Amino acid sequence: MTEVWKPSVTVAAIIEREGRFLMIEEQASDGLRLNQPAGHLDEGEALTHAVVREALEESAHDFEPTALIGMYMSRNVSSSRAGADTTYLRFAFAGKLGEKHDLPLDTGIVRTLWMTRDEIAACTERHRSPLVLRCIDDYLSGQRAPLSLLYTDASVTTAAVKEAIGVAHG
């Protein structure tokens, strides 16, 4: 049987305040990188829940998604992970920054910082993904779609809840 190709699904929070964007600096396998608060969709999780969780884990801030900026695909062939080839499907969200909490940042996150679009554009070699600047540019152009475009069937979250409490799947 042939292996089925599957992209890695990620979410990103595009958070702007007074012309600056909330960015994270993280230690990646290929060095110190810049990204938005972002990460992988977990099993049993809706996309909007994933971006709220990732923003909190990586920036220690609450985040309320208000719109979908876009859906993006990119491919990475890692020079530091023996040529691992991964295609990413990224869902980027605009939203409101909420309360800052006294929480440790996720493993690998060095710090959060606020940067202008030009500052971000000036260091593309440090971006975690080629999508970092593209998402900001789409945000700045006013690109928005309603969150109602995203639908998560109850079967997605129901299975995760059952597994979490130890109920056998039938």
TrEMBL record:
Keywords associated with the record: Hydrolase, Magnesium
Cofactors named for this entry: Mg(2+)
Top-tier EC class: hydrolase
GO molecular function: hydrolase activity
Domain Nudix hydrolase: 4-137
EC number: 3.6.1.-
InterPro entries reported in the protein's UniProt record: NUDIX_hydrolase-like_dom_sf (IPR015797), NUDIX_hydrolase_dom (IPR000086), NudJ (IPR033713)
Oligomer and partners: Monomer.
Family (UniProt): Belongs to the Nudix hydrolase family. NudJ subfamily.
Protein name: Phosphatase NudJ
Gene: nudJ
